[in-house]
Amino acid sequence: MSTLTPEALGALLQGLGTDPIPTRACPIPAYSADPSTSTATLTNGDLTIPVPRLRHKGKKSPADQCADFAANFPPGHPLFQIPNAAGIHLPIFFTSNSLHRLILPFVFQRQRSYGHDLQAGLHDPSAGRSGRKRVIVEFSSPNIAKEFHAGHLRSTIIGAFISNLHEKMGWDVIKLNYLGDWGKQLGLLAVGWQRFGSEEELARQPLTHLLDVYAQINAQFKPEQDESKKARDEGRDTSEIESRGIFAERNAYFRRMEDGDPEALALWWRFRDISIERYTSTYTRLNIAFDEYSGESQVKSSTVDEVERDLKDKGVYEEHNGSWVIDFKKHNAKPLHIAVVRGRTGSTTYLLRDVAAVLEREKKYGFDKMIYVLIGRPDLAARLQHVSFGKVIGMSSRLGNVKLLGDIIDQTGAAMHEVMRRNAAKYAQVQDPESVSDIVGISAVMVQDMSGKRVNNYPVDIAHMTSFEGNTGTYLQYCHARLNSTLRKAGLAQEDIAKYIQDHPTTLDNGTEKRHCVDLLRLMSQYPDVTATALRNLEPSTILTYLFRLAHQFSSSYDVVQVIGTNEGRYIMLGRAALYEGARQVLENGMKLLGITPVER
Ligand code: ARG
Question: Any idea where the DALR anticodon binding domain is (predicted)?
Answer without folding.
Answer: 476-601
